[in-house]
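User: Sequence in, structure out. Go.
Assistant: Echoing your sequence, followed by the structure tokens.
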Amino acid sequence: MIRLQAEAKRILEKENASLVLIRNGQDPHVDFRTGLLPLWQAFRQENWKGGVLADRVIGRGAAFLAVGMELSSVYSPLMSRGAIQVLEDKGLDFYFDREVERIKDRSGKGLCPMEALLNGVNQPEKALDRLNRFFLEKSCG
């Protein structure tokens, strides 16, 4: 898995992607869109069990998706304390360059909408249900 995680990180940086998912025997899934939607779509569309994720920003929403995807390893240049707690609680390997208290919205002044949506949620099943309802109501599925 260390080799796959290093490859995912390399692709993330080299291609300036927003996320990279890799599973043994598959071509990397690379996405350049921002926000949580691309990761949620990957979660819904394909089996990533045992794979690795490199993502520009990992907040609690992305961490819960990583748990739901049954990934083996997660890397991000920027990870929230809440995401770290989720990943630690579920025993996923994770790496980050910089830790922040919480992920902020694009303006940098408020809380990221996904962080707000999952505020107080600690069970992966409940978090995934909230994320599914949010994105399906937005007709993003």
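User: And one key feature?
Assistant: The radius of gyration is 14 Å.
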